[in-house]
Amino acid sequence: YVTRTVLAEMELQSQALPVTNTSIYTAPNPEVAAALLMSETVLQPIVEKHGLPPVRYFLRQLTVKPNARSGTIDVTLLHTEKNTSTLILNDLGAEFVQAVSRHRRNILTEHASHVSSLLLQADRDLGLARSEFIKLKDSMQLKDTDLRQNVELQGLVDRRIQVETEIEQRSRALVKFQRRLQILAKDSVAVQ
């Protein structure tokens, strides 16, 4: 008796995603992406969907070769059925893209949350600076022209302006991140 096997191949290539500051999110290089592709997180749903052997055995049927120079990952599957092999590789590619998308979305969500907390802190700082300013102004009963002569009071005015500027910058950053999350959500829906 002869067991027939089919060799199915797939090439995954990195595509540009909506622009994200590289200090916030960097797309995985081919080696890291290949490790993710062979992870249980990606493979388990494929194994379950197609009734394949457990992940540790299914990995023996896969060959995954990252190519840093071309930015691609070559995937080869040695399987017994031609039609099933194609479906398995298509599902594997789709599951991999979703895993990368989820990872990116999680990082951007964490960063947006961090920016929101910074914005809240800046708001509190501004409130405190305003309160101190009002107390000092009331206690000294100074007019606007007298304020310029008082160095301590001028420092508070400068700090207030600085805090207001920080709040504006962080608000703009938060809006940008929210837009990126919306784009990522749309990309994620398109992948599914």
Element layout with pairings:
Layout: E1 6-13, H1 30-37, H2 40-50, H3 55-58, E2 62-67, E3 72-79, H4 82-140, H5 144-147, H6 151-191
Antiparallel strand pairs: 1-3, 2-3
Helix pairs in contact: 2-4, 4-6
Note down, in words, how this protein is organized.
- The chain is mainly α and 192 residues long.
- 66% of the residues lie in helices and 11% in strands.
- The chain has six helices and three strands; from the N terminus they run βαααββααα.
- A hairpin with a 4-residue loop joins strand 2 and strand 3.
- Helix 2 crosses helix 4 and helix 4 runs antiparallel to helix 6.
- The longest helix is centred in the middle third of the chain and has 59 residues.
- It is rod-shaped and about 95 Å long.
- Report the β-strand fraction as a percent range: 5-15%
Task: Write down the overall mean pLDDT.
Answer: 80
Identify low-pLDDT runs.
Answer: none
Strand tally, please?
A: 3
Q: What strand order characterises the main sheet?
A: 1-3-2
What oligomeric assembly is this protein in?
Answer: single chain
Brief sketch in words of this structure:
This protein is mainly alpha-helical and 192 residues long.
Notable features of this structure?
mainly alpha, 6 helices, 3 strands, 66% helix
